[in-house]
Amino acid sequence: MSRVPAELLLRRVRLEKVQREREVSPHTRRRGLVDHVLEAVEGQSLATQGDFGYALYAVESGTAEVSANGSLLRTLGPGDVFGEIAVIASGRRTASVAATSPMRLIVLFNRDVWALEQQAPEAAARLRALVAERQAVEPT
Fold first, then answer.
1. How many CA atoms lie within 13 A of 140 on its CB side?
2. Strand pairing category for 71-76 and 103-109
3. Could you give the percent of the chain with pLDDT greater than 70?
4. Contact 32/89 with Cβ under 8 angstroms?
5. What is the CATH number of the domain that holds 90?
6. CA angle centred on 5, ends 76 and 55, rounded to 5°
7. Residue range(s) defining the domain that contains residue 71
């Protein structure tokens, strides 16, 4: 499994945050790409197969299990991405994800991914490639 998309996303998010902190005062900083962080506890459901998906997640720390139709597909850890198929391709979650340890996740909503297309096309291209790879090998 490739971890490059998450590494590019996390790098882009960190650079964007540094730039915003330099350019925008804390009182006027708008919510956007860098402001969406999710702290999850062990056992927390992060995505449910069949639900509509409005965000994808990049794992900064912690672990989670991905399952579909009752079968374990993979374990996620730092540098992994999930939720990209719903956001980029189908609109619905193709698998369920549950935290197996405390986690810190960067959340990218649809609008953030659309902005990523403009601001970091190489990262967006790698996400599209990951979607194609996973759709080719995973049950729908």
1. 10
2. unpaired
3. 72
4. no
5. 2.60.120.10
6. 70
7. 4-137
In total, how many domains does the chain have? 1
Please give the Cα distance from 35 to 91 (Å, whole number).
Answer: 23
Calculate the alpha carbon distances from 2 to 71, 73, 91, 127 in Å. 21, 15, 22, 10
Tokens 């927390």 locate to 44
3-state secondary structure string, 50-96? CCECCEEEEEEECCEEEEECCEEEEEECCCCEECHHHHHHHCECCCE
Task: Write the pLDDT tens digit of every residue in 44-70.
Answer: 999 999 999 989 898 999 999 999 999
CA distance 10 to 124: 12
Residue 123 has pLDDT above 80, yes or no: no
Q: Is residue 83 within 8 Å of 53, Cβ to Cβ? A: yes
